[in-house]
Amino acid sequence: MATIDLTQEDGDAPAPAPAVTDLTQDSDDEPPAKRAKAATPDLAQLRRGAPPAPAARSLQLRTHPNQLRDLWRGDVTREGQTLPVVAFYSHRGSSPHRCFSNFHQGAFDFTLPASCDGATPRTVRVGCGEQAIMLSKAALFRDAVRFDAIAAPGKRPEDYKALGRRVQGFDGGAWDGVVVDVAIAVVSQKFASDPVLKQVLLATGNAVLAEAAPQDAIWGIGHGASHANTQEL
């Protein structure tokens, strides 16, 4: 059973980031596996077998989800080059890139990021990235009941997502303040833990990984993989 630390100093809660008027987001949306190298493990470190850095180049400062699109566009055109885009979406099918979805099932030991360390145990064996994200949410808002339910193995990814939407005390501003850190932690630990997944990621080279989600223009690109603008994000 989880133990939730209910004490919280004034400085513990992340301040909501300034609003961005030209982009909208359902505050309870969860990030699919990240689509930019800014939110994936450092490739050189992965090749050496070293632990991934806590945050990659573009996201070393606290980043709000609404700021991600500009960061990704900068990655695509950095240094005067136009980088290729690898689009992915579903965890089903035969594409090797299906593992980029947080619904892709594969067990790994997940350690909660420091921004969501309100629960023990800090490290939990999870079956998919979605489970790790929802654990982080329950820990952040100190919901021990939901934390224990999410930590239990054997559920489908969509079941973990549904449990995460029931976390008590949820605050969209607080979640937005840490969700990029959570995304980095989940993706870094997932790909560093599995040699097969690591090689799939490394094989993308310098490409930008784009979640081709027609209904999501924050964590995804807002249209499908076959859309004419996919290579432009």
From TrEMBL:
InterPro entries: NADAR, YbiA-like_sf
Gene3D superfamilies: YbiA-like
Domain of life: Eukaryota
Residue ranges constituting the NADAR domain according to the UniProt record: 88-229
Start and end residues of each stretch annotated as Disordered: 1-56
Protein name listed in UniProt: NADAR domain-containing protein
Organism of provenance: Pelagomonas calceolata
